[in-house]
Amino acid sequence: MSAESNFPENLLPLSEIPKLTWLPRRRGGKRPHQATIFRWVQKGVKAQDGAIVRLQAWRCGTTLCTTQKALRQFFDMLSDHDPMLAREMPRSPTARKRADSRAERDLEAAGI
Fold first, then answer.
1. Residue-by-residue pLDDT tens, the chain, 112 positions
2. I want to staple 47 with a disulfide (CB 3.0 to 4.6 A). Which of 29, 37, 51, 107 is the partner?
3. DSSP, residue by residue, 13-70
4. Domain count within the chain
């Protein structure tokens, strides 16, 4: 496999990322500052569960670049580490007791 096949398409300089129209606005309706984007690459963001998530970037000469795909993956990784966005919410104690009772009845009915 050649190195060219691993090189991403559609590289954008980090300074252009705040101008993306699909990127959500920050407090006060402002776009993220380009220093914020650089920080996402250099230091990353501490996710809710303590993991550090970094935006993937490539150096093109003296310019740091990323892709829109890498930006979406960065947001996906942050979401994956957020317990509030867990795919399954933990069951309440009452729901667990009901499920246990149901399982016991099913096992007794099956003769187990």
1. 445 556 677 899 999 999 999 988 888 999 999 999 999 999 999 988 888 999 999 999 999 999 999 999 999 998 888 777 666 666 788 888 888 899 999 888 888 8
2. 51
3. EGGGGGG-TTSPP-GGGPPPPHHHHHHHHHT-EE-TTS-EE----EEETTEEEE-HHH
4. 1
